[in-house]
Amino acid sequence: MAGLIKREDIDEVRQRTDIKEVVDGYVTLKGAGLGSYKGLCPFHDERSPSFTVRPQVGRYHCFGCGEDGDVISFVQKLDHISFHEAVEKLAHRIGFELRYEDGGSGPNREDIGRRQRLLDAHKVADEFFRAQLLTPGAAEGRNFLYERGFDRAAAELFGVGYAPQGWDALLKHLRGRGYTDAELKLTGMFSEGGRGIYDRFRGRLIWPIRDIAGETIGFGARKLYEDDQGPKYLNTPETALYKKSQVLYGIDLAKRNIAKDRQLVVVEGYTDVMACHLAGIPTAVATCGTAFGTEHIKIARRLLSDDGTGGEVIFTFDGDAAGQKAALRAFEEDQRFVAQTFVAVEPSGADPCELRQSKGDSAVRDLIGSRRPLFEFAIRATLKRHNLDTVEGRIAALRESAPVVAQIRDAGIRPAYARELAGWLGMPVEEVNRAVGTATKRAAQPASAAPGGNPGQSQGARQGSAPSYAGSGRGMPGPGPGVAPLPASALLPSFNRPDPRDPVAAMERQALEVALQEPGMLEGETWERFSEARFSTPAYLAIHEAIRATGIGLAADPVRWVEQLLQEVPEPLRPLVSELAVVPLPASTAEGVLRYCKDILARLFELQITRVKAEKMGQLQRLDASSDPEEFQRLNRELMQLEMQRRSLRSDA
């Protein structure tokens, strides 16, 4: 069983991973000053790049939408995986073996190596199948795609390929790449007979099935020839990589749009996914030979940020009996969602692929636009099972449909559907309301956590995220006996964003940018001066205090320096710290950065000297020189020393 990853190992993974290399896999980055890179933000739509990466401090920040974090949070958000999974993925990337707390364990090196070999074999097979689609022997496969409105560009977008006829085309190819039969048996791409293993997929159109990170983990194959005695669709069997209850075809292409639009469209087949995406519904996915179940819902809720603030899940089903059955099965899982669930059924019974083929892209968009609430569909489907022309049929229909209405979460919508049901049944509203009320009471349970249960505190909350300012104590006494504690938000300090037009605030900001990005500049006497500096802008003062608390010990490692600092600052200021850590410094060479940093720190220290001089000058003016000549002389000497320090700063700069 996996335990918590050791804190020092998380720090090591963060420090040893090049954030630019990781981000480059998702975003096209271009140089934006010495040691800084910019690109279009992957978290929101924009025309001008405002997403900035600063490898030296190991952080990113978008100056458009405010998203920020380190390499672990970036992988978490973009791949929609947990903190634990992101750390393990990055550790594998750099070949680092993680250790776990409390005797727990993660995947061992042997398992990691075996998994990577399987992934590599699938990648090679994926490339092989795609290359085969362009050969003369794949004419039937290309015709299949063409007849359904898919050109070569569409095939390439979705990675569609072709498995040659014969028994060992793929087998020979993978053996030639160094894979043993023992390894190949584990991939699910081969069957086994009396003479050994042979290709599972033969003479079929092939779709690669990828996980949420875009890794090929299995294949779906469609029959093309009449003499093929196998099923119409043949998928990879369950393997160490491929678990059909946890896989959604197209999730790798759809995940960002699902997260951005907070919409998930569930269709039934691979070509339906292709048709939807090409028609302008880029949130479409499909299950792989199984019903949409609990594990799929977990994936969907994570992508949708299913927290009750919006989002919708739309199921499309054929209009036949099987499609209705599938819709009702989906309704049984509806309560696991907070998002609204809908169903879209084409009256003619056409699926999205057929609809696009016969009526064009707009017809597919119209189908999704015509969605109806899933509970309405479920109620009507329930009524169809009864003869509403008889009293007995109407009573039976009421008994069966009232619990469906009772399941509607929105208490404001439930009475409206009770009235609709009364109209459909031709019965008094009061009678239907009583039946729904009875069903509601029977279904009533003690208040529980959000759909899917309360998973408890995630490892991401325990690890990787710094403790909140409100919860850290920081000198705040707890409530006395019998006194309800204040909510965390009431304990958080309030910081207004500093006015960029204020010259003092601008000076303090520039000094903090230098401190965060070039902490090596603060060593020795400079650290003492910086520590003694007095910041007047509240937000910058809090960050300065956090820097003093962090100390100079980690200055040689800017990644850990900034990470430690983020744990010291009040939580509301973490985005500002991230911003200060990545904003490009106005210099294009290493020498230029050095000059700039020295100049900024000199100006900060000069400002500090000016403030102290003003205070001592005030003391001097208030002092009667004749009554305390020694104090008068001391203040004059200190003023002279301060002026000499100020002139020295200017000459050094």
TrEMBL record:
Its EC number is 2.7.7.101. One of its GO terms (cellular component) is cytoplasm. GO terms for molecular function: DNA binding; DNA-directed RNA polymerase activity; zinc ion binding. RNA polymerase that catalyzes the synthesis of short RNA molecules used as primers for DNA polymerase during DNA replication. InterPro entries: DNA_primase_core_N_sf, DNA_primase_DnaB-bd, DNA_primase_DnaG, DNA_primase_DnaG_DnaB-bd_dom, DNA_primase_Znf_CHC2, DnaG_bac, DNAG_N, DnaG_primase. It comes from Arthrobacter oryzae. It catalyses: ssDNA + n NTP = ssDNA/pppN(pN)n-1 hybrid + (n-1) diphosphate. Keywords: DNA replication, DNA-binding, DNA-directed RNA polymerase, Magnesium, Metal-binding, Nucleotidyltransferase, Primosome, Transcription, Transferase, Zinc, Zinc-finger. It comes from the Bacteria. A zinc finger (CHC2-type) spans 41-65. This is DNA primase. Its cofactor is Zn(2+). Binds 1 zinc ion per monomer. The gene is dnaG. Residues 456-466 have a biased composition (Polar residues). It is an enzyme of class 2 (transferase). Contains an N-terminal zinc-binding domain, a central core domain that contains the primase activity, and a C-terminal DnaB-binding domain. Belongs to the DnaG primase family.
